[in-house]
Design brief:
About 35% of the residues are buried. Helices cover about 50% and strands about 15% of the residues. It has a six-stranded parallel beta sheet, sandwiched between helices. The protein is built from ten helices and six strands. Strand 3, helix 6 and strand 4 form a beta-alpha-beta unit.
């Protein structure tokens, strides 16, 4: 019976997905989609596997996601792969996870389809991992495709603190006094020093695994974003789930904070 149901899904889902894509209003496609890839460890437990297997299954689902985004015209995707809090995980799990992240980022870069942009406190990462991320960014610098922000060692509060620190250093170099800076400082000055500077803020933020909280993801940039929470663990997140999230976004009346 289970095999029969799976076969039916393989037949019906592509037709359903194609119909959803056709009905998406082009003017309501999100320009920037943020994704919190949550649930790898719980997925692994649910199938009786170890944590590393869950992370590898999650990594394998990233390339399909980027393909779905390409198909509908998304321009920027931000993937939260590792938070600053995750850096406190047991050393064995963290070592495995960082290796998997390095592998998947290098694989994405090798495709030559997407521009890779690491965002996060790379100085908190082991040097070999940070160098792998930087090399992926450099090798795709001229790629004319979706801009893929890979958030590794990322925390929203840390990003804002880093932005303010960068702003202060910049103005100190110019000889600006604190009093002079205080007179002119506004939100745009800080935005210009965020990890995602020069990019549009996310229109849609998706979190998998059923959790309904941001946990520090793009705190500054998501002030006017629409949120979609999906019950599926990240390794089980399918194209139909993605399209339902985009369809829900397209159906909303955006109020931009009002």
């Amino acid at each position: 019976m289970a095999a029969w149901k799976q076969g039916l899904r393989r037949v019906l889902y592509p037709a359903y997905e194609a119909r959803v894509v056709r009905r998406l209003p082009p003017e309501r496609i999100p320009h920037h989609v943020g994704v919190m890839l949550d649930g790898n460890r719980r997925w692994a437990r649910s199938v009786g596997a170890d944590t590393a297997h869950g992370h590898r299954a999650g990594a394998a689902n990233i390339e399909p996601l980027l393909g779905w985004c390409e198909e509908i015209g998304v321009e920027v995707v931000t993937l939260w792969l590792l938070s600053t809090d995750n850096l406190n995980r047991p050393s064995e799990e963290l070592t495995d996870l960082l290796g998997i992240i390095g592998d998947v980022v290098e694989s994405l870069a090798a495709q030559g389809r997407w521009r890779i942009n690491p965002v996060g406190a790379l100085d908190l990462l082991p040097s070999p991992v940070a160098e792998r991320l930087k090399a992926a960014a450099e090798s795709t610098r001229e790629v004319d495709g979706i801009w893929v922000n890979v958030a590794v060692g990322y925390g929203g509060r840390r990003e804002i603190a880093d932005a303010v620190r960068s702003l202060l250093h910049e103005h100190a170099g110019r000889g600006t006094t604190l009093e002079e800076l205080a007179e002119v400082l506004d939100v745009e000055h800080i935005a210009e020093h965020l990890y995602t500077k020069g990019q549009p803020d996310p229109d849609l933020v998706i979190r998998t695994s059923g959790e309904q909280r941001l946990g520090g993801f793009l705190l500054w940039q998501s002030a006017q974003s629409e949120f979609y929470f999906c019950e599926a663990y990240w390794p089980d997140f399918r194209k139909v789930d993605f399209l339902r999230a985009v369809r829900a976004y397209a159906a909303r009346e955006r109020r931009f904070g009002a």
